[in-house]
């Protein structure tokens, strides 16, 4: 049995041997942003070091594990950056002091009601509970006494039908 210090040393050596290939891999994903690449590489190696005693490295290819962790870190970073304000723009550029157009709200509500009326009662019930009331699918299934798969199917089909109707524009009479 290898003691903890020796185990960490082995893991560090394995990871450092893959450092250059890891850096090339992350660069292929992120491009030439050397700071972002280095952040991902360092975070990946840190996680490997932190998990050294919990992962059985003998049966796990270190390179594949490092690449997967790096890929996941890049995805997480991309998701975080997607919610960030672009450089050069201030948050006031995104804020509006305008109140929503009341006439447009009335029209939107009438269109929504008309499109919902065109759904079958079972589909309308599921859409209303999930999308308008925010109930989880499991709760809707329990209340309606149907399997969860049925709730998911009805929700999917109803949303697909709503999108089709809104795209088609058959609801134009609802605004009149």
Automatic annotation (TrEMBL):
Residues 110-161 form the RNA polymerase sigma factor 70 region 4 type domain. Residues 19-83 form the RNA polymerase sigma-70 region domain. It comes from the Bacteria. Keywords: DNA-binding, Sigma factor, Transcription, Transcription regulation. Pfam families: Sigma70_r2, Sigma70_r4_2. The keyword Transcription regulation applies. The keyword Transmembrane helix does not apply. Belongs to the sigma-70 factor family. ECF subfamily. This is Sigma-70 family RNA polymerase sigma factor. It comes from Kribbella antibiotica.
């Amino acid at each position: 049995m290898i003691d903890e210090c020796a185990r960490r040393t082995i893991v560090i050596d394995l990871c450092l041997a893959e450092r250059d290939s890891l850096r090339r891999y992350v660069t292929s994903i992120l491009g030439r942003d050397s700071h972002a690449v280095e952040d991902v590489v360092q975070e990946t190696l840190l996680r490997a070091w932190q998990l050294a005693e919990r992962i059985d490295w003998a049966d796990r290819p270190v390179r594949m594990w490092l690449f997967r962790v790096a890929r996941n870190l890049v995805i997480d970073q991309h998701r975080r950056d997607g919610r960030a304000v672009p450089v050069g723009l201030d948050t006031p550029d995104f804020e509006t002091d305008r109140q929503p157009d009341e006439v447009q709200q009335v029209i939107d509500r009438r269109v929504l009601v008309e499109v919902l009326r065109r759904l079958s009662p079972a589909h309308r019930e599921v859409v209303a509970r999930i999308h308008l009331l925010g109930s989880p699918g499991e709760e809707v299934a329990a209340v309606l006494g149907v399997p969860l798969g049925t709730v998911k199917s009805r929700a999917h089909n109803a949303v697909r039908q709503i999108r089709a109707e809104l795209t088609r524009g058959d609801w134009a009479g609802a605004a009149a």
